[in-house]
Amino acid sequence: MTIREITEDIVYFGGAVFSFYLVRGERPALLELGISQTAPLVARMLREDLGAAPAWLTALHSHYDHAGGAVRLLREFPDARLACSAPAARVLTLDEPAPGFVRAMEKVNENALFASVYPGADTVVEWRGVSGAHVLEPGGVLDTGACSLEVIHAPGHSPCSLCLFHRGSGALFVSDACGMPLPSGRIWPTAFDNLEQYLETLRRLAALEPEFVCPGHFVFFRGNRARRFLDRSVRATEQFFERIQRLARKHGPDEAAINRALAQDYNEDVSFIQDNVLRFGNRCMVSLALGPGEPAVQ
Questions:
Q1: Number of domains in the chain
Q2: Were both Cys, which of 95, 150, 196, 257 would link to 251 (CB 3.0–4.6 Å)?
Q3: Residue 295 lies inside a defined structural domain of this protein
Q4: The pTM is what?
Q5: Which ranges of the chain would DSSP assign to H, the alpha helix?
Q6: pLDDT tens sequence across 236-269
Q7: List of the chain residues with pLDDT < 50
Q8: Does some domain include residue 298?
């Protein structure tokens, strides 16, 4: 994995697919927890390369690729505390989460790219409910001692999504609230739960005029590229849902045909997006677009 300093107190480390962020201070925070298999690699990099033992293990939403490493990371850092939204805390306390949660992590082991990019990871998938989470309330802060991170409610991708904003540096941690930047340069929208809320979240975040935009996958953006990423995400989302409508006029209510066509649009990036994640996300967005009423692309 690559390590890059964003500011003196904020460090990115990651590789193709997963991004992690360390926010330094008296109570360091790890932002993004990855999957179960990346936990030992992340723990080793924190200790040996970054010299940090996080006090906060922060899941910006409850999906498996952002919170699946929680159990093993808490064992690696027993003095740390999980921090997340109240809806995410309810999901992460379940000993038996949605069936796809564990199954999706297991499927990562079949991806040759994962093993090559994360050679220090393993194939162990472990999950149990996590209790005692510190609930991050919208409008509150996550304080590391060096950085005070403002908590922003960011629905649309999922009801439990949060973003964190460090106003001093302009670093905005968006997880999946703003779409997935792909190696091809495209943005795959991640409006899995509610399109209107997703677009409203994007526009609220753009109004912050961040200096850095830090997604949960692939890369972070700086300066004008950061602000353009948010603007491009709005347009990419609008175009994606317009594409669904064109496919619906061609195929009628055949959602399977629409999903096949959408999957083909991302052939060049499919090795970087787990095919099951691509299918799941596209199905969610097709259902939103073809559900009751007209989709709110505006």
A1: 1
A2: 257
A3: no
A4: 0.94
A5: 39-44, 64-67, 70-76, 86-92, 99-108, 112-117, 195-207, 223-251, 255-265, 275-290
A6: 999 999 999 999 999 988 999 999 999 999 988 8
A7: 293-298
A8: no
CB 206 within 8 A of CB 227: yes
The sign one gets for the Cα dihedral 171, 194, 155, 24 is negative
pLDDT at position 292 is 64
Give the domain extent around 201: 2-290
CA-to-CA distance for 74 and 54, rounded, in angstroms?
10
Task: Give the bridge partners for 23, in sequence order.
Answer: 10, 29
Q: Identify whether 253 is part of a domain.
A: yes
Q: Tokens 């992460």, residue?
A: 92
Helix (H, G, I), strand (E, B) or coil at 172: strand
Q: What is the pLDDT, as a whole number, of residue 295?
A: 39
Confirm whether 297 is domain-assigned. Answer: no
pLDDT score recorded for residue 276: 86
**HEC string of 225-246?**
HHHHHHHHHHHHHHHHHHHHHH
Asked if 45 and 22 count as a contact pair (C-beta separation under 8 A), the reply is no
CATH code, domain with 130: 3.60.15.10
